[in-house]
Specification:
It is built from 23 helices and six strands.
Length: 504
């Protein structure tokens, strides 16, 4: 199959902009006729290159010269994909690679709490100081206590971009699963009490558990200050509890509701509003602890010690263990298996994955109690994952990560700033989704003409001094023919702006 592509000149400054047809057949992008740079002992077939692109773009964030060679050295792309599962799991148990400029991501939770407290105090003082000029944009390495939270959020975003685009720093599958689970267990960096903790949540909770057992991930998320603050669990106490000032306090159901609706069972997962309230009672007393290593404590004084029933199961007064048992129950529930199976299938296979693939993934999840290594083996072994009619379109985050990877430019802070700005304008700011449902992954959300034009502008900017010619073997004959008609100086960017590159 071939891909329809049109290059048009538009008056945006002095640079040409690539406009991509909405009618482009993104799933057919991989047809090619000439093998470029493939291993000599590998079959020089269209299918070989198509499968390599699929593996690199779905298991990770697309080719780099080294990754392309890595795939070509394996008997086939399936074997490479399977190999990444164990490699990603091994890497998840190691400390993440964090640049010296991202000093905030090396702080432990008590240190973050203390600097956050100091920031609040500094802001109170600043409030009484005459303002002369607006604050300057902060550098990643800034240590200004007045903007600690903002710096921490910027550093978290920078690390995320480096991790997804530098395979030498982070295993590609580990980076992709970190993105998947952060989106599934979303926290919003724009909420003041959450902002300084996002980087720690990303690297020490989501990344660490990305290929482990699902219930361990949910438990770690539930205890982290970022989640406790984001969904107001830290403020949820037994009805009738009085504050130290004597004010009456009570349940906050936000976290319990989202734990059921989004994190585990799903909106049609078989629970009622009564179950939500009972679960909220089970979780009372789960709150933050600024001086504890994990930032969490269970406060018996704030806990509802009565008997509760969630999904027909009775929970007697057992303190913190009530919440642990409830979360494990929800994580192992058949409705959770179906929900996670469908989300994984939409993430890795297509917007409308075959039911047989979804069922197989859900079964694997249920049978292994959410062991993600086993679940991912089911995903990558499925025929649907490799079927040419199962297409995916890159989200803005996908696109940025793959563009930075292809141009090998994530080490340049200017490109990180450029990328973060593009993502904000594209509607997918890093860690910036306000509601707990996370970003959409489907093509319909992101494939609109103005968004594609914006991508082209970004592509030309980020590839200005890059060599992306190693991608030529993965492009359709139609795209390569069109590229030959363009000025050489523009080709690197036009490759990234092509419909071929937009598909994964």
């Amino acid at each position: 199959m071939t891909t329809n592509i049109s290059y048009c000149r538009q008056s945006l400054g002095t640079r040409p902009i690539v406009l991509l047809s909405r009618r482009a057949t993104v799933g057919g992008m991989l047809a090619m006729t000439v093998p470029f740079g493939w291993a000599q002992n590998a079959p020089q077939t269209l299918a070989t290159h198509a499968q390599a692109w699929r593996a690199l773009s779905r298991v990770g964030y697309g080719p780099t010269p080294n990754l392309a060679q890595s795939v070509s050295s394996m008997p086939n792309a399936r074997d490479w994909a399977m190999q990444q599962i164990d490699l990603a799991f091994a890497d998840s148990s190691r400390s993440p690679v964090i640049g010296t400029d991202l000093w905030g991501l090396q702080l432990d939770l008590p240190q973050i709490f203390e600097r956050f407290r100091a920031e609040r105090e500094a802001r109170k003082t600043k409030k009484n100081t005459p303002q002369t000029d607006a604050p300057e944009p902060m550098e990643l390495g800034s240590t200004d206590p007045l903007h600690f939270s903002r710096t921490m959020a910027q550093q978290a975003a920078a690390w995320h971009l480096r991790a997804c685009s530098q395979p030498e720093q982070e295993n590609p599958l580990l980076a992709r699963m970190t993105e998947f689970w952060f989106n599934h267990l979303n926290v919003f960096s724009g909420k003041g009490a959450v902002r300084p903790f996002v980087g720690h949540y990303l690297t020490q909770v989501i990344r660490r558990h990305a290929l482990g057992r699902f219930e361990d991930l949910v438990l770690a998320s539930a205890r982290h200050p970022a989640m406790l603050a984001y969904l107001d669990q830290a403020q949820s106490v037994a009805d009738g509890t009085r504050s130290r000032e004597g004010k009456a306090r009570g349940l906050n159901e936000n976290y319990a509701r989202e734990l059921m609706e989004l994190h585990t069972l799903g909106v049609n997962g078989g629970y009622t509003q009564g179950d939500v309230r009972e679960l909220a009672r089970v979780l009372t007393g789960w709150t933050v602890a600024p001086r504890e290593a994990d930032g969490f404590r269970f406060a018996p004084r704030l806990h509802d010690h009565g008997t509760k029933q969630v999904l027909g199961r009775t929970f007697h007064d057992a303190g913190e263990q009530e919440g642990v048992a409830a979360i494990r129950m929800l994580a192992r529930h058949p409705s959770t298996a179906r929900r996670i199976g469908l989300r994984l299938a939409k993430f890795f296979i297509s917007d409308n994955p075959p039911s047989v693939a979804v069922d197989a993934i859900a079964r694997s999840f249920l049978d292994t109690q959410g062991d993600m290594r086993a679940v991912l083996r089911t995903v990558f072994a499925s025929d649907a994952f490799w079927a040419t009619d199962q297409t995916l379109f890159k989200t803005p985050m996908d696109f940025v990560c793959s563009a930075l990877a292809a141009t090998q430019s994530a080490s340049d802070t200017r490109h990180l700033v450029l990328s973060a700005g593009f993502l904000k304008n594209a509607g997918q700011p890093i860690h910036g989704w306000q509601t707990p449902d996370g970003y959409a992954f489907d093509a319909a959300t992101w494939m609109v003409p103005e968004a594609l034009t914006r991508r082209a502008d970004y592509a030309l900017a980020v590839a200005r001094q890059a060599d992306t010619s190693f991608l030529l073997p993965f492009l359709s004959a139609a795209t390569r023919q069109t590229l030959e008609q363009e000025r050489p100086a523009l080709r690197a960017g036009l490759i990234l702006a092509s419909p071929d590159f937009m598909a994964k």
